[in-house]
Specification:
There is one protein chain. The chain is α/β, with parallel strands linked by helices. Helix content is about 40%, strand content about 15%. Strands 1-2-3-4-5-6-7 form a seven-stranded parallel beta sheet. Helix 9 runs parallel beside helix 10. Bound molecules: zinc ion (2 copies). The site of one zinc ion (ZN) has 5 residues, from loops.
Length: about 260
């Protein structure tokens, strides 16, 4: 187990360079005293992937890379520094019917870190778009969301390390089933442990609903699965955002950090 030093997290394992340069992001990460910093661009920001995979959820603005190699060469712009490890990664959608195409795209190269995320439901609804919902469909949607996440954890389409923002559906629904959520998140955490994947304590999720992330942390503790912190920063100022709340949850529930 990697202990927290003075109740402080020292790695941010989820960030993007579609809106800010790699130099500005890494300079900010170094200034914040991070030991490890991962840049994990969405695969939907790559021309080839966008052309062959129907993403229901992607950024309409921001940099689009022509190739994986163009993206990878960005990392050469960063001067190495002692006690600072920059990881080259990707945030990879799990879309059941495109597993093969996504796997073929990502697995062309090897990566320091891979994050897996579920951004859409099976009817292709973006989890963060306004999803009209009454209490009964809220329950159904959450069940469906967690089922897809478990399918992702059980899939070997890419060798990923972390399931990202596992409770982000709240962003689209604005509600969760109070009675059922504990059981659903326990199922998720059990599957993550079984497949040696970490669940992410995500800075944006913490911002949207801290209580829900607390439920996730409780489930991770109960089932003994590892966690990872990722701010999901798109701008230098967002790096490590809400990490103190994540650190508190890690201490309080005695969670184990994967990185
Ligand atoms: Zn995401
Ligand atoms: Zn992200």
């Amino acid at each position: 187990m990697k202990p927290l030093r003075g109740n402080r997290i020292e790695s941010d394992n989820h960030s993007h360079i579609l809106a800010a340069s790699i130099e500005s992001m890494t300079t900010a990460a170094k200034k914040k005293g991070l030991e490890q910093f991962s840049i994990t661009e969405h695969i939907s920001q790559f021309k080839g992937a966008r052309e062959s995979i129907e993403f229901s959820s992607f950024h309409t603005k921001g940099r689009v890379f022509h190739s994986l190699d163009e993206y990878r060469s960005e990392f050469e712009k960063v001067k190495p520094a002692p006690d600072f490890r920059l990881k080259m990664g990707l945030e990879v959608d799990f879309i059941s019917r495109f597993q093969k195409q996504i796997g073929d795209f990502v697995n062309q190269r090897s990566w320091d870190i891979l994050l897996c995320s579920v951004h859409e439901l099976s009817d292709r609804k973006d989890i963060e778009a306004n999803i009209n919902s009454d209490p009964r469909s809220t329950e159904r949607r959450w069940r469906e969301y967690v089922e897809i996440e478990i399918e992702a954890l059980e899939s070997d389409y890419i060798p990923f390390d972390v399931l990202t923002h596992p409770v982000r559906l709240f962003g689209g629904i604005g509600d969760f089933p109070r009675d059922e959520i504990g059981g659903l998140l326990s199922d998720l955490a059990r599957s993550a442990r079984r497949h040696s994947k970490a669940l992410e304590l995500n800075g944006k999720d913490l911002e949207i609903n801290e209580r829900l992330v607390e439920q996730l942390a409780r489930a991770a503790a109960k089932e003994g699965c590892q966690v990872s912190f990722g701010s999901d920063a798109h701008l230098p100022t967002q790096i490590m955002e809400n990490s103190p709340q994540a650190a508190n949850l890690i201490e309080r529930f005695g969670l184990e950090l994967k990185f």
